[in-house]
Amino acid sequence: MYIDSHCHINFPELAARLPEIFGKMKENRVTHALCVSVNLPEFPGVLAIANEHEHIYASVGVHPDYEETPEPTVDELVKLSDHPKIVAIGETGLDYYRLEGDLEWQRNRFRTHIRASRATGKPLIIHTRSASEDTIRLMREEKAGTDAGGAGGVMHCFTESLEVAEAAMAMGFYISFSGIVTFKSAKELQAVASAVPLERMLIETDSPYLAPVPHRGKINEPGLVCHVAEFIAKLKGIPLETVARQTTDNFFQLFHIPR
After folding, report:
1. How far apart are CA 204 and CA 212, in angstroms?
2. Cα(88)–Cα(51) distance, rounded to whole angstroms?
3. Most buried by CB count within 10 Å: which residue of 21, 184, 241, 259?
């Protein structure tokens, strides 16, 4: 079986099709999915989906791309995460790709999420793009990793170098690969995926975006995460069932979910 460790099924592209989405998951042996929060106004919808469906979990947090949105406080994140279906804080992190100018607000927001993670013991879901140096620096400064008494977490939709992956793993973080790893142009990322131990790996769709080959260019959904697993298995030269079993075990272990 497979688990989609990061999706956005509350987004309009997927929310109106949930019965169909869940049917495709079952057809492809995708047993669970984590619906990830990107801002506080839409968080109630994220939690509602998780509440209504036993096989869906959720997170609470504010994405670094959302500039004009209510800013979370540590206390607010701690309070909102006090629910059995909320298993993570995030997604959070830094993104210098789309935004310019003084981005200290992004770094402050990231620190807020790390402090909420430490306070709750719930792992972080970290987004980083064109900002890996600052991301790793703040993770260390705020003691986000299990090596420093934090809750750890996952570097989601990973596209950075092996050096960045190793720095994150040294802090106890997992590395999650999305459909990007299946793209023909992603040779450097495929080399990273080859080197990351399966014991530290998760798989995801980040749907409705980044559909894996052979569905590239179409709307993505959790049921397609099996193609990420298939590609990883071929890349590493190991049985598909090994990838499925280990990434599933990793998911339950990271997010402290009873089997």
Report:
1. 10
2. 15
3. 21
Output the pTM of the full model.
0.97
Which element (helix H / strand E) includes 240? helix 240-254
Q: Measured between alpha carbons, how far is 80 from 44 in angstroms, rounded to an integer?
A: 10
Task: Please report whether residue 53 resides in a domain.
Answer: yes
Residue 17, domain extent: 2-254
197: Cα within 13 Å, side-chain hemisphere: 10
Per-residue exposure over 156-187, b if at least 16 CB sit within 10 Å of its own CB, e if not: bbbbbebebbebbbebbbbbbbbbbbbbeebe
Predicted pLDDT at 161 = 98
The residues, any chain, with a CB within 8 Å of residue 45's CB and separated by 6 or more, are 10, 15
Let me know if residue 259 belongs to a domain: no
**What are the strands, taking DSSP E only, across 63-189?**
86-95, 124-129, 153-155, 174-177
Q: Are the C-beta atoms of residues 254 and 201 closer than 8 Å to each other?
A: no
Supply the CATH number for residue 167's domain.
3.20.20.140
> How many domains in the chain?
1
Which amino acid is it at 209? Y
Residue 259: pLDDT band (50, 70, 90) is confident
